[in-house]
Amino acid sequence: MNTKHSMPSDEELTAFIDGELGPEEAARIEAMVEKDEAVVERLEFLARASLPYKQAFAPLLDAAPRARLVAMLSAIPAARPPRPAAFVSRRGFLGALAASVVAGVAVDRAMIGVGASFSRKDENSEWRAVVAEYISLYTPQTLAGPVPARDVQAAQLASLDGNLGLQLSPEQVALPDIDFKRAQILQYDGKPLAQIAYLDPETGPMALCIVASDGGPKAPDIEGRKGMNVVYWANATHAFMLIGHAPVDRMTEIADAVRSKISV
Amino acid sequence: MIEGYFRMSVAHTTFPAYSRARTESPVRPAILKQPVSAEATIASEADIRSGLAEHLDRLWRYGFVLSHERDVADDLVQATCVRALERVDQFVAGTRLDRWLFSILHSIWLNEIRARRVRQGQGFVDADEALTFDGARDTETHVMANQVLKQVNALPEAQRSAVFLAYVEGLSYREVAAILDVPIGTVMSRLAAARAKLSEAVPAGGFE
User: Fold this and answer.
1) ipTM of the assembly?
2) What's the CA gap between B137 and B149, in Å, rounded?
3) pTM to 2 decimals?
4) Which of B2, B80, B116, B187 to mutate to test the interface with A (most CBs of A within 10 A)?
5) Beta carbons within 10 angstroms of residue B47's beta carbon
6) Less Cβ around it within 10 Å: N or C end of chain A?
7) Residue A190, domain CATH
8) What per-residue string of b and e applies to A152-183 under the rule 16 or more CB within 10 Å gives b?
9) Which domain holds residue A25?
10) How many domains does chain A have?
11) What is the pLDDT of residues A92-138, one digit of tens each?
12) Cβ pair A56:B79 closer than 8 A
């Protein structure tokens, strides 16, 4: 700490101006102000920055798109009851899956109803909401079991080609340190949706999902859905999303690896 | 983007001499990040929802101050609402909801949106062209306001957010530290550095 004769730091003077010093420290600064012109000068210099900040920033409150934000807030669905820890049977799982997909569509329609302008830069987000809904139901147990052999993987991937016009090899969809579990075709809005499911030993279920898209190429972007991170992008013919529980940095890294192997 | 950017020239405004302006006690409960203890009252989702509705404007303004972009501010508020509603059980009733929401927004900005923008190499908006507002811009008030906005906006982000939270939102150092997730000493040095810069920019008698 400073002695009585030394110059207080800018930090101390700032805290003094802001009324953030305790009574003793404040008294010490006051005493220095009494005695030392240099302290007064520095204090006055720093106090010049006591500007009418509240007034200056008040108009930015009026600039907020309040109606849009209120509509957005009311479109966020109420919290769901805790999800079941495990599915008792495959049948039960499929039932839950179907229900969640329906709920997901309803929810996302509501979001879109908020106004196209709210998410105008991303009007094709609906399918990602649906995917996030059902991937959020996956647990590591959902994807338990051995990693399929390469020829099994290749056969599963071949089914994607027929449905989506997408030729992928097991090597192209292999993720670093993450196990391939299965590739399958689902249906979204009457159109095929490819889902390649993985299990990351560290963070749990992960999926690469693909739909046909004529929206044109799109650089990767990232968003949070259902407590998971989603990296999504598109090439001239397909839209992709990688979804999982890994942190943003890792998800981006994995997505970059996928993009480098699947021509864009 | 904000249209009608107005480059100020003259303002006739005087500024109060230094004073110990803050009347709030510096000792206030910090934002709680720990899990709720069994004794604490857990807020209901409806409480959080109505609190969010009340603070949407302020959250948006903070998002805009951080990002300088309306679209990003929109997204930040949306993500904050979603996150807050997901984590209702982490909010301790009796503490300040607005502080909690600010800290959620700040962490989303820092860890998700800002990180992504930096990584993708997208430049930030030119400081001179952001953070001004349109509307009755020919009044003295707006000229003054735009001058202050311009100066704050020219600060590095770490100083800017501290100045905004302490001097615009009127939060204590302790609260600012909790929201920015830094020690109080860091808040003090950011504010001191910001004051030194702002004072350089302001003539001795104020803007005139």
Assistant:
1) 0.74
2) 13
3) 0.53
4) B116
5) 14
6) N
7) 3.30.200.100
8) ebeebbeebeeebebebebeebbbeebbbbbb
9) 10-47
10) 2
11) 445 554 554 544 444 443 443 333 333 333 446 778 888 888 888 88
12) no
